[in-house]
């Protein structure tokens, strides 16, 4: 058993007969009244996100998890296939439980949280940034780069990202997987 002081991003807990992963949390200590923890929880089974407030000192049932490195192999419809980099076992997960799956290219190594009680995969943690090549974008207008203007671009995985006007097809860009946004251009 854990308490609200143990809450941290990525912690998996049992709540309302389901397993949730904490995406965001905020400890609040108002001037009047007891302290509490405001959380945003994501169900690892359905992908549904809920907001919940725990009072300070509330007991929560945490789920013991192990982390393993898996390599993304390929997609088949809504299923994504991964291979454990240590023992080469393969698992299949549904696309909806993988945050940022649109930025995964074949061969990408991700961290998968596995429940130690039943060996079921709980969630997939993407690397914080990925480097992808731009496959399609409109050409930028010369001299129009002084502003913060952006244009849509399609990357090699098929995902669409807004990029600055100076980005062209064939450029490699760094994408923040948590926000799903352009970070910087990679120079070769």
TrEMBL record:
Can you tell me which family this protein belongs to? Belongs to the elongation factor P family.
Xref: SUPFAM superfamilies = Nucleic acid-binding proteins, Translation proteins SH3-like domain
Which biological pathway? Protein biosynthesis; polypeptide chain elongation
Q: Which GO terms describe its cellular component?
A: cytosol
Q: What is the lineage of its organism?
A: Bacteria, Pseudomonadati, Bacteroidota, Flavobacteriia, Flavobacteriales
Taxonomy, superkingdom: Bacteria
Q: Which locations, inside or outside the cell, does it occupy?
A: Cytoplasm
**What is one process in the GO biological process aspect for this record?**
peptide biosynthetic process
Q: Which gene encodes it?
A: efp
Swiss-Prot/TrEMBL keywords? Cytoplasm, Elongation factor, Protein biosynthesis
Residues covered by the Elongation factor P C-terminal domain: 130-185
An MF annotation (GO) of this entry = translation elongation factor activity
Every copy of the Translation elongation factor P/YeiP central domain together lies at: 67-122
Provide the protein name. Elongation factor P
Which CDD domains does the record associate with it?
S1_EF-P_repeat_1 (cd04470), S1_EF-P_repeat_2 (cd05794)
Q: Which Pfam families match?
A: EFP, EFP_N, Elong-fact-P_C
Q: What is the role of the protein in this entry?
A: Involved in peptide bond synthesis. Stimulates efficient translation and peptide-bond synthesis on native or reconstituted 70S ribosomes in vitro. Probably functions indirectly by altering the affinity of the ribosome for aminoacyl-tRNA, thus increasing their reactivity as acceptors for peptidyl transferase.
